[in-house]
């Protein structure tokens, strides 16, 4: 979660929610490159020390959990 002024960005697995005074926009993140861009650039989290295989494994785990959540009847 990140707050910037009146905007709150929340990343839960592969779902990015952006909330502000006008409402909420929700979208799924479908690619590893977009997800890592949000995590590192958007949220400023430092994962630069992970190797490419470690990044790939983390993305696969996040994506698998998201797919299972959707298959179970995403609320």
Question: What order do the helices and strands come in, and which of them pair?
Answer:
Elements: E1 2-4, E2 7-12, E3 15-20, E4 23-28, H1 32-42, H2 52-71
Antiparallel strand pairs: 1-2, 2-3, 3-4
Could you explain the architecture of this structure?
- The chain starts with a strand and ends with a helix.
- A hairpin with a 2-residue loop joins strand 3 (15-20) and strand 4 (23-28).
- The protein has a 4-stranded antiparallel β-sheet, with no helix packed on it.
- The chain has 75 residues and is an alpha+beta fold.
- It has helices at 32-42, 52-71, and strands at 2-4, 7-12, 15-20, 23-28.
Detail the poorly predicted runs: none
Describe the global form.
flat
What distance separates the N and C termini?
Answer: 20 Å
Question: What are the secondary-structure elements, in order, as H or E?
Answer: EEEEHH
| Percent in helix | 40-55%
| Average pLDDT, all residues | 93
Query: Strand portion, in percent?
Result: 25-35%
**Strands, total number:** 4
- CA radius of gyration is 13 Å
Largest sheet descriptor: 4 strands, antiparallel
Report the total helices: 2
Question: What multimeric state do the chains show?
Answer: single chain
Short key terms for the protein model shown above:
75 residues; alpha+beta; four-stranded antiparallel beta sheet; 2 helices; flat
Please sum up the structure shown:
About 40% of the residues lie in helices and about 30% in strands.
């Amino acid at each position: 979660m990140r707050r910037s002024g009146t905007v709150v960005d929340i990343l839960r697995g592969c779902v990015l929610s952006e909330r502000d005074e006008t409402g909420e926009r929700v979208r799924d993140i479908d690619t590893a490159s977009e997800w890592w861009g949000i995590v590192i650039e958007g949220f400023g989290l430092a994962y630069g020390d992970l190797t490419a295989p470690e990044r790939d494994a983390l993305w696969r785990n996040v994506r698998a959990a998201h797919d299972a959540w959707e298959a179970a009847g995403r609320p």
